[in-house]
Amino acid sequence: MLELRDITVTLDDFSLHADLTVPAAAHMAVIGASGSGKSTLLSLIGGFLAPNNGRILWDGQDITAIPPGQRPVSFLFQDQNLFPHLSVAQNVGLGLRPDLRLDRDQQAQVSHALAEVGLSGMERRRPASLSGGQQSRVALARILLRARPLLLLDEPFAALGPALKSEMLQLVARIAGETRATVLMVTHDPRDARSFAPRTILIEGGIAHAPVPTGPLLDDPPPGLRTYLG
Amino acid sequence: MIRRHPAGAIIATLLATLILGTLAAVAWQARGLSGLGPWDWQAVRFTLWQAVVSAILSALLAIPVARALARRRFRGRAALVTLLGAPFILPVIVAIMGLISVFGRNGALNDGLRLLGLPEISIYGWQGVILAHVFFNLPLSVRLILQGWQAIPAERFRLAESLGFTPRDRLRHLELPMLRAVLPGVWLAVFLVCLTSFAVALTLGGGPSATTVELAIYQAFRFDFDLGRAAMLGLVQIALSLGAMTLAFRITIPAAFGAGMQETHTPHGPRGWRRGADTLAILLAAVFLLWPILSVTANGLPRIAALPTEVWSAAARSIVMAICSAFLALTLSLILALAVARGNSRWIESAGMLPIVASPLVLGTGLFILLRGWFAPQTLALPVTVAINAIMALPFGLRALIPAARILRADYGRLAASLDMRGTARLRYLTLPRLARPLGFAGGLAAALAMGDLGVITLFAQEQPTLPLKLYQLMNSYRMEDAAACAILLMLISFALFWIFDRGGRLA
Fold it and tell me: Which residues of B touch A68 (CB under 8 A)?
């Protein structure tokens, strides 16, 4: 269970307040107008941004001061999710050990994870020789291996076409199901929110509101969100 | 939650302490301006005068060459422009050997003058110092002014053509405004280099009419062993550099030509006599720059194999020192660049740029004053030279590494943090592979500069000379054939070191 307790963060003339709870293994959409603070919320949870005050708890344990890589979190960014100078296997292997000293067993795990996302035999390729969808799969294979209980998606599939994007979301749902992970997914597409996330965190007016059921929210959005969705 | 990285701050502090500390040692040792005699003031005057004249000559002579290169296309143009960058890593003493072989007593120029029954000219004295400075700085000036020319958008030239501009109109409306913006910066860059000139003054200057402050420091230190006077002169040198740097803040005016589409265009250079003038400018510049080097190569290359063993051992010593210096410079500048890229540390960048103000001879004098109680000068010579050469290469390393480190952090900093890549894992799998190119380039510069340096080493050792010092000793004992061979060996090693590092960075 993820708890944001009375979090405030201020950046220049922007500020965000959050006081909410996300239950374990929930799939949650994060929705709001451009610049409302969706990425800021994820950065706070991921540890790239320190709150001015308030605390972040995971399963009752305070993680506010823990550096990003040691949090119970896997993060998929909008872009730059792979190192272009490392092979596919190395990129995935980083999920097991950041120093890449993998034993035979761990190497087998890497190959297995790649097979799981449909990339068997691609171990030695470089990211540049893969398609956009395949690159996303590599990043997902790494998430599968890291098996962190909290998965943060900051619109990583925005550059993919609609069909490919929903394929990726299904893959995310499968991986999250296997690892029983809690997922927070930033999106600006109401269809993604409906299909992937039963509940949604709405960010509006500098506040990240407590999760509400996705369907009713989108059927009758508050005025700010209505303008944004059009 | 934000992890602390003290390494950058520690190194910047050490660096600032070292440079400012040696300055303080020098200042403490100095006896006040009363310690300076008329000779010393003559050195100050000469330093300023030769720097002013060298800078004016380099900048003015560079204009026709840069214009010709900007508006003509010919075979070998790209090679020539690349070659213009070579003097940066060409050891000063090698170029001096080249100039002596053309302009010296037995050089081609004086042979010609004798044949015509004209009086000989001497390369020793102020004219030699200025000649050498123009030789080094003309290429730099041409490159800078050429950049200015190429920064004028092609659209402007096309517009000028469609409006039927004559070459004169073009000069007035396009080229003069550019030159007005670029030339002060070019002049200042050359002036700064000439202000701290040591090796040129040591070999071609000397005497009351051609002694620079740096040379006077060396003489006070080495011949009179008058530390107080050396220190005082060191302070004067620092004051000169600082004065010039404050000038730099006022002078750099950016050119106000809007941005243009970057399309490759073939310039239409004017026909007629101007075509001939351009050809002549390029030819003269190429001959002036290549002849000395080719001449000393022709003299020296066949004799390399016959060089005495002490030259080879000096070469080996220098190579080891240059490589140590390069790796030291790389380590320091990488740590500093990563710290600067993390963003909260303007002062770290300033500390890394401090060596621009510090002259190597002043640093050497200061270190000697600080360390003389503990070590014999002979044991200090080589380590101090390695350290000072590494420090002097820092600004160049930082200039190459800081932008690359910023990009690296912006692109992959969060990903690496989210995967908990730290310490050696991050260095090995992220930093080194992504920064290999600028690291190789910076390492190559540092190695070549250290290899060719004839500076602080002259203060100390004579029994264990570096290759440039050995070359200087050969010149002083008039073994000019061995000296020519030694010069070519030094040049080849310097270029090879640069090439190996730079290439290594590209292939990594």
Answer: 414, 417-418, 420
Give the residues across from B471 on adjacent strands.
none
The 8-class DSSP code of residue B2 comes to: P
Whole-model pTM: value is 0.85
Q: Which residues pair with A9 in a beta bridge?
A: A16
Give the 3-state secondary structure of B259-323.
CCCCCCCCCCCCCCHHHHHHHHHHHHHHHHHHHHHHHHHHHHHHHHHHCCHHHHHHHHHHHHHHH
**Cβ B1–A80 below 8 Å, yes or no?**
no
Bridge partners for A55 per DSSP: A5
Pairing of strands A207-208, A73-76: unpaired
Nearest CA in chain B to A51: B1
User: Given a cut of 90, is residue B54 above it in pLDDT?
Assistant: yes
Cβ-proximal residues to B441 (8 Å cutoff; 6+ apart), any chain: B400, B501, B502, B505
Residue B173 structure tokens: 């409306």
Give yes or no for A93 touching B (CB within 8 A). no
pLDDT band, very low/low/confident/very high, at B468 (cuts 50, 70, 90):
very high
**A222 inside 8 A of chain B by CB:** no
Contact B361, B453 (CB under 8 A): no
Beta-carbon contacts of residue B284 (< 8 Å; ≥ 6 apart)? none
Nearest CA in chain B to A101: B425
- Banded pLDDT at B259 (limits 50, 70, 90): very low
| A48, A85, A94: residue with CB nearest B434 | A85
Q: Hey, are the CB atoms on B424 and A99 less than 8 Å from each other? A: yes
